[in-house]
Amino acid sequence: MELPKDPMMLFSVINMKLRDNYSSLDELCDDLHVDKNDIINQLQAVGFEYSPEYNKFW
Predict the structure, then answer these.
(1) Cα distance between residue 21 and residue 5, in whole Å
(2) Which of 22, 26, 48, 56 is geometrically suited to a Cys-Cys bond with 43, CB 3.0 to 4.6 A?
(3) pLDDT digits over 3-57, tens only?
(4) CA angle 4-44-52, nearest 5°?
């Protein structure tokens, strides 16, 4: 799957998928064949942090 390049769109898509389809970021990344660190780094660069407890970026 091609994820959005725009950080705000990426934030929205990832959180929607985590909410609706996946119980963890690891599960999402494994299923979509994307690098977890790439997503974390892209979203951290604009101020978002992943919360495993809430299974979302904020």
Answers:
(1) 21
(2) 48
(3) 999 999 999 999 999 999 999 999 999 999 999 999 999 999 999 999 999 999 9
(4) 95
Residue 58 near residue 49, CB atoms below 8 Å: yes
Residues 6 or more apart whose Cβ sits within 8 Å of residue 55: 18, 19, 22, 23, 24, 25
For every residue of 9-53, DSSP letters joined together read HHHHHHHHHHHHT-SSHHHHHHHHT--HHHHHHHHHTTT--EETT
Q: What is each CA distance from 51 to 1, 2, 15, 42, 56, in whole angstroms? A: 23, 23, 11, 15, 6
